[in-house]
Specification:
The structure holds 2 protein chains of 2 kinds.
Chain A lengths: L10 H11 L11 H5 L10 H9 L3 H6 L2 H4 L5 H5 L6 H14 L7 H15 L4 H12 L9 H4 L15 H18 L1
Chain B lengths: L2 E6 L11 H8 L5 E7 L5 H13 L4 E6 L2 H14 L7 E5 L1 H5 L5 H20 L8 E2 L4 E5 L3 H12 L3 E5 L14 E2 L4 E2 H14 L3 E4 L2 E9 L2 E8 L14 H5 L5 E2 L8 E2 L2 E2 L11 E2 L5 H5 L4 H5 L12 E7 L1 E4 L3 E3 L16 E3 H8 L20 E8 L15 H15 L4 E6 L9 H10 L4 E4 L2 E6 L5 E7 L4 E7 L1 E6 L1 E3 L3 H8 L26 E3 L9 H19 L4 E2 L5 E3 L9 H5 L5 E6 L2 E6 L9 H5 L5 E3 L4 H13 L1
Helix pairs in contact in B: 1-5, 2-3, 5-18, 6-7, 6-15, 11-12, 12-13
The chains are: A mainly alpha, B alpha/beta.
Chain lengths: 186, 653
C-alpha cells in the first residue's frame, strides 16, 4: 500500500475546492457525523469523512478517482449534521464539477448526467424514456435495468412521449447561456 | 521636571525588530527628558536596579519604561519607582512589544512608531501628579453563592480561617450536582459518601450561616463593604420546627409532583425532602402541586406533622447581609439537548441524559439503584452512550469541549457492567479526552476489563424498532463503515452551560459572562479565580466546565483569595478614580445614571445639587467622564489634558 506523502499536498486543489464550494475545509475535525448520516455510505468506496480528509491532505488523485461523489444523492444530510457548519453536500458537488472538468469521470454516471440534462434541455423537464435511450447509446449497456421496464410501464412511470412544459424554450436558453459562458471562460 | 526613559529590548522580542538604542537616542530630544537609555530586560532585577540607580543619579522626577503591555508589568515598575523614592503614579509605560515589535517586521517603521509611543508617554508623564491611596475598613464576612462542591469547599476553608460565611443556595438542599451523582471517577467511590461529611460540616460549622431555598437579588457597595439582598423563598414549612422526620412526605396525597432532584426520572410528593443526606434536612412544599395551596383542600401534612411546622401562609422574605467579599459558585446546567432531532428531540422515553442515568444508578434514586428503563421498567441489556451531545458543535453555537463527559461516560459504562453483568455498553466517541491523574488508565480499564465497546464515530439517528428497542445508526470512522446497534437504553453525554439564571446573577454581581453563561475570570491563566470586579471571586463550574477535583481546587483557591483580602487590617483604594469639579457640575445627574458601580451620588452643597464620587466604590472606568456635558468630571491620571497632550504629541511627530 502506498503511504501518504504529506509533502506532496496539492495546495492548488484544496484552494480550488474551497473557492468553488465556499467552504473552509480545514474546519472539518473528522467527527464522522456526515458519514454516520449518509444513506449511501454502504455503497461508497470512500466514506464522506474520508473524502473530506483526502481533500484536507490535498490528495487530488484519490478524491477524483473515488466513486463516492458520483454515488452521492445530494440529500444534504451530511450538511445538516455537520457540527462545523460545512456544507458537505456542496463539497461533494464541487468534487463532481472538478472531476467533469478534468475528464476524470470513469464512471458511467457521467453518461447518465449528460443524458438527463439533454432531455431537460429539449423538454424543459426530464423525459425518462429519452434518458434511457441516450444512456444506452452512450454506454452501450443495452440491458441494464431493462428488467424494471415491464413493471414501470403499466404504472405510467415511464411515459412513451415526453411531457413538455410551457417554458421549455426558456429552459433551453439557460443551457445555451451556460454553454456560451463556458466558451467565454475558456 | 526631569524624566528618565528606559527602552527595553525584552531579549530579542523587541530588539529584533526595533532599534532600541535609536529610540533611546531620539527620546533625549523630548522635552523634560533628562536621561534615556536602552536595557536588556527592564523587568529583571538588574534592570530594575538600574532604574532605581538612574533616578537617584540623575535626580529624576518621573520614569517612562517602553516595554511590554502594562497589564503585565505596570505594577512591577510602579513598585520600582516607589523603591527609588518617587510616587508610584509618576510612571508611564509605552507598549512597544504587543503594539510594535510583535506586529510588524519593518525595523525602520517600528523604530519610528516606538519613538512616537515614547513621546506620547513622556507628554502624559509631564502632566502626571502624585496620587495617594486611601485606607478603609472591610467587613470580615464572605458571601458564597451556590452550595455545590466548589462553594462548600470555599465556605469551609474561609470558615476555618475564622471568616464568617453566608452561604446562599437556590435549592432546598446544598450538594449541587455532585449530590446527584452515584459514583465518581476515576476511583468509583460513592459520591454522597465523600460529599456528605462536607455538607454536614457546613451545617455544623459555627462560622457558616446557611441560607437554603434563597437567592441573591441585589448587590451594592464595593470590595470590603458589599450590601447583599437575599430573597428567602417561602418553603411553607417552618424550618426552625421541622425535624426532617419525613412523616409529611409519606402521607402527602399529591404523589405526581415532578422530582427535580431526580432529574424528573420519577414522581415525588408535593412536600418532600430531596434526598436522604439533604442539608438542611428539612421538608419544603412545591406550591404548584400542593392541593392545600392550589385548591385549599387537603392539609394532611399539617395534621401529621408532630411539631406543627407546616405554614401554608408563609411568604417570601428579603433579608440583607453586609459582606466584605463574594464567591460565586453557581455551577452549571446541561444544555437543552432536544435541539437534536436525530436523537429523538426528547420524544423517546429511553433516550436519557447522563445525569438522569446517574439517578437511575444511585441507590437513593427513584429506582433504588436498579437500572430500569423509563419506558417499561425492564433491565437494559444493551446500552449505547453517545458523547459530545451539545459539545464541540459550532452549528448549534456550542464550540467548546465540556471536559468531563469522556470520564463520566467511562464510569457509567463500568457501573452498567457492575449492575448488569450480562449487559453490553457501546460508546460512540470523537476523541477521548482524559488528561487528569489516573484518568486515561480509567478509560482503558473500561475498555479492557469491562469490555465496553468504544466506536470511533458519531450517531446519525435513533429510531424505535417497534419491538421496544432502538436502532442506533452510526459510523465507525476507523473502518470507514456504517454501524448499527440495537439498544435498550441510550444515554447522551450532554454538554454543559452556565447554570440557569447565571447571566442575571452576573449582572447583579457586576461581573462579565460569556455566551454560554460562564463567568469571565480576570486573566485566563494568571488570575483564574478573580473577576474584574474587586472582591468578587469565582469557584467551580460557573467559570467553565470542571470536574470535581478542579472545582474543589478552585473553591480552595477562591477561599485563599478571600482570606488574603480580608486578613488585611484595612484595604487600600485605587486613586485612579473620578473627581468632580463642583464649580462646573450642574447637577444634571447623567453621571449617576451611567455609573455601572453606583459610585456616584447626588449631594446638596449650599442648596445646589452636585455629583459626588464615593471613592472606594469608583472603579475608574471613565463612563461618567465621557458622559458629563460640562466636562466637570475628570479621571485622575487620565485627565482630558493628559489625553490631549498624547494626541498632540502623536500629531506633531
Amino acid at each position: 500500500m502506498d503511504s501518504i506523502n504529506l509533502r506532496a499536498r496539492d495546495e492548488a486543489f484544496i484552494r480550488e475546492v474551497e473557492k468553488e464550494s465556499g467552504q473552509n475545509i480545514s474546519t472539518c475535525y473528522q467527527c464522522g457525523n456526515c458519514t454516520a448520516g449518509c444513506p449511501c455510505g454502504p455503497v461508497y468506496d470512500l466514506q464522506v469523512n474520508q473524502i473530506m480528509r483526502a481533500i484536507q491532505l490535498g490528495d487530488k488523485k484519490t478524491v477524483l478517482e473515488a466513486a463516492s461523489p458520483w454515488l452521492c444523492v445530494s440529500c444534504s444530510t451530511c450538511s445538516a449534521r455537520c457540527p462545523n457548519d460545512i456544507d458537505v453536500a456542496r463539497v461533494m458537488d464541487t468534487v463532481r464539477h472538478i472531476g467533469r472538468r478534468e475528464g476524470k469521470t470513469k464512471y458511467v454516471i457521467n453518461a447518465f448526467w449528460d443524458s438527463f440534462l439533454q432531455t431537460v434541455r429539449f423538454c424543459g423537464r426530464s423525459y425518462e424514456l429519452g434518458i434511457m435511450a441516450l444512456f444506452m447509446l452512450r454506454t452501450g449497456r443495452f440491458y441494464t435495468d431493462l428488467d424494471l421496464a415491464p413493471r414501470m410501464l403499466p404504472k405510467k412511470k415511464m411515459p412513451y412521449l415526453p411531457h413538455l412544459i410551457r417554458g421549455k424554450a426558456a429552459v433551453s436558453r439557460i443551457f445555451k447561456r451556460f454553454n456560451d459562458m463556458q466558451q467565454y471562460d475558456d | 521636571m526631569r524624566i528618565g526613559v528606559f527602552i527595553c529590548h525584552c531579549g530579542s522580542n523587541i530588539a529584533g525588530t526595533v532599534d532600541c538604542a535609536q529610540v533611546a537616542k531620539n527620546a533625549t530630544a523630548f522635552p523634560d527628558v533628562a536621561f534615556a537609555t536602552d536595557t536588556m530586560y527592564a523587568c529583571s532585577e538588574p534592570g530594575q536596579d538600574a532604574i532605581v540607580a538612574a533616578v537617584k543619579e540623575h535626580h529624576l522626577d518621573g520614569v517612562v519604561v517602553a516595554s511590554c503591555t502594562p497589564r503585565m508589568h505596570e505594577p512591577t515598575f510602579r513598585r520600582t519607582v516607589e523603591r527609588a523614592g518617587l510616587n508610584r503614579y509618576m510612571f508611564e509605560m509605552a507598549n512597544i512589544r504587543e503594539h510594535v515589535s510583535w506586529i510588524g517586521k519593518d525595523k525602520e517603521a517600528n523604530t519610528n512608531k516606538a519613538t512616537e509611543l515614547v513621546r506620547m508617554a513622556v507628554e502624559k508623564l509631564r502632566r502626571d501628579a502624585p496620587l495617594y491611596t486611601k485606607k478603609f475598613d472591610s467587613v470580615k464576612k464572605v458571601l458564597v453563592i451556590g452550595g455545590g462542591v466548589a462553594g462548600i469547599q470555599a465556605a469551609l476553608d474561609c470558615a476555618d480561617a475564622g471568616i464568617q460565611v453566608v452561604m446562599v443556595e437556590r435549592e432546598t438542599s446544598i450538594g449541587g450536582k455532585m449530590a446527584k451523582l452515584d459514583k465518581t471517577f476515576p476511583t468509583v467511590d460513592c459520591s454522597s459518601c465523600i460529599l456528605g461529611p462536607k455538607m454536614v460540616d457546613v451545617a455544623q460549622h459555627p462560622n457558616i450561616k446557611l441560607l437554603a431555598a434563597s437567592e441573591v437579588t441585589n448587590v451594592s457597595g464595593y470590595v470590603g463593604n458589599f450590601t447583599v439582598s437575599i430573597k428567602r423563598r417561602a418553603t411553607y414549612v417552618d424550618w426552625s420546627k421541622c425535624t426532617g422526620c419525613g412523616l409529611c412526605t409519606e402521607k402527602c396525597p399529591s404523589k405526581k409532583t415532578p422530582d427535580k432532584f431526580n432529574e424528573f426520572m420519577g414522581p415525588t410528593t408535593a412536600i418532600n425532602i430531596p434526598f436522604p443526606q439533604a442539608i438542611p434536612k428539612k421538608a419544603a412544599i412545591n406550591p404548584d402541586y400542593c392541593r392545600k395551596i392550589k385548591d385549599g383542600k387537603c392539609g394532611v401534612c399539617a395534621k401529621v406533622c408532630p411539631t406543627g411546622a407546616i405554614n401554608y401562609e408563609m411568604q417570601d422574605e428579603v433579608i440583607t447581609e453586609q459582606v466584605g467579599a463574594i464567591v460565586a459558585a453557581s455551577g452549571y446546567d446541561l444544555m437543552d439537548w432536544t435541539v437534536y432531532g436525530e436523537y429523538g428531540a426528547g420524544r423517546y422515553p429511553d433516550v436519557i441524559t447522563s445525569l438522569q442515568y446517574e439517578r437511575l444508578l444511585s441507590a437513593a434514586g427513584p429506582t433504588g439503584g436498579h437500572i430500569q428503563r423509563p419506558s417499561d421498567g425492564k433491565e437494559p441489556k444493551s446500552v449505547v452512550f453517545i458523547q459530545c451531545v451539545g459539545s464541540r458543535d459550532r452549528s448549534i453555537g456550542r464550540p467548546y469541549c465540556s471536559g468531563f463527559c469522556c470520564m463520566y461516560t467511562a464510569k457509567q459504562a463500568v457501573l452498567t457492567k457492575d449492575h448488569i453483568p450480562d449487559s453490553q455498553s457501546y460508546v460512540f466517541y470523537m476523541d477521548i479526552r482524559a488528561p487528569g491523574k489516573m484518568y486515561d488508565e480509567f478509560t482503558r480499564r473500561a475498555m479492557e476489563e469491562y469490555g465496553t465497546e468504544y466506536i470511533r464515530g458519531r450517531v446519525s439517528c435513533i429510531q424505535p424498532n417497534g419491538r421496544g428497542q432502538y436502532l442506533v445508526r452510526g459510523v465507525d470512522t476507523l473502518m470507514g463503515k456504517p454501524v448499527e446497534v440495537l439498544a435498550d437504553l441510550v444515554v447522551l453525554a450532554v454538554g454543559v452551560e452556565g447554570a440557569k439564571g447565571a447571566g442575571k446573577l452576573a449582572e447583579t454581581l457586576h461581573i462579565s459572562y460569556d455566551h454560554y453563561g460562564f463567568f469571565m475570570e480576570s486573566h485566563c491563566k494568571l488570575r483564574p479565580v478573580e473577576t474584574n470586579t474587586a472582591g468578587v471571586f469565582l469557584a467551580g463550574a460557573c467559570q467553565g466546565a470542571k470536574d470535581i477535583p478542579s472545582s474543589v481546587a478552585q473553591g480552595s483557591g477562591a477561599a485563599a483569595k478571600v482570606i488574603g483580602l480580608l486578613s488585611k487590617p484595612q484595604l487600600e483604594s485605587d486613586p485612579q478614580i473620578s473627581v468632580v469639579d463642583i464649580k462646573r457640575c450642574v447637577g444634571c445627574g447623567k453621571c449617576v445614571d451611567v455609573c455601572p458601580f453606583q459610585a456616584i451620588t447626588k449631594q446638596s452643597i449650599r442648596g445646589e445639587v452636585k455629583a459626588q464620587v464615593i471613592e472606594a466604590v469608583c472603579q475608574g472606568c471613565g463612563l461618567c467622564v465621557a458622559t458629563c456635558p460640562q466636562g466637570a468630571i475628570q479621571l485622575s491620571h487620565f485627565t482630558d489634558n493628559q489625553i490631549l497632550a498624547e494626541v498632540n504629541a502623536l500629531c506633531q511627530c
